[in-house]
Design brief:
eight-stranded antiparallel beta sheet; alpha+beta; about 20% helix; about 40% strand; 3 helices; six-stranded mixed beta sheet
């Protein structure tokens, strides 16, 4: 009988823990989609400086610093949207040879702005994180954008920028690759 009395609190505790686990895992699909995880942004933002050359990026950062980053064929930097003095950019870096930082990925934010269209979307990326949709029948139109760690965030969807050219953009997330054509003004 003593063993049975000692065993009952253990069973009650086990049932309580199991009941808590079931409640945690019973999130609806809607609740799972609404969970937002904050990811620290380690990218550097700024304006391309006049001192930029074929192998060196001069960046005037948002906090007023002038920084230089190596760019060489050997480093295989991922440059999307081109590099033009005066353009706003975001970049991620990696440690290069010696103590120099190399550009790992650069996205030209000035080139990103504009009107983009695909088979099912038609929107304009504007400054200050605003997106204006031109399709009224779109079920989930993009309304805001940002950059985090060199990736494009449209609403709550995060995309890697695969290609950003003068007339086309390709972005990718876990649902696939999306290709957009720039609309002429």
């Amino acid at each position: 009988m003593k063993h049975l009395i000692a065993f009952i609190p253990g069973i009650a505790l086990l049932m309580l823990v199991a009941g808590c686990d079931v409640k945690k895992n019973n999130l609806s699909d809607e609740q799972k989609d609404s969970i937002v995880v904050e990811v620290p942004d380690t990218a550097i933002y700024g304006v391309v400086g006049e001192g930029t050359s074929m192998h060196v990026l001069e960046l005037l950062t948002e906090d007023g610093k002038t920084m230089s980053f190596a760019m060489s064929q050997d480093s295989c930097s991922d440059i999307q949207g081109g590099i033009f003095a005066g353009d706003k950019v975001t970049l991620t870096t990696r440690k290069g040879s010696g103590e120099d930082l190399e550009v790992e990925k650069l996205v030209n934010l000035t080139s990103l702005l504009g009107k983009w269209t695909s088979l099912d979307r038609n929107f304009e990326i504007q400054e200050d994180g605003v997106i204006v949709s031109a399709m009224k029948a779109e079920s989930h139109p993009y309304t805001q954008w940002s950059m985090v760690n060199g990736n494009l965030v449209l609403n709550a969807d995060t995309f890697a920028v695969l290609l950003l050219g003068p007339d086309s953009m390709s972005i990718e997330n876990n649902k696939g690759i999306f290709v957009y054509k720039r609309q002429k003004p």
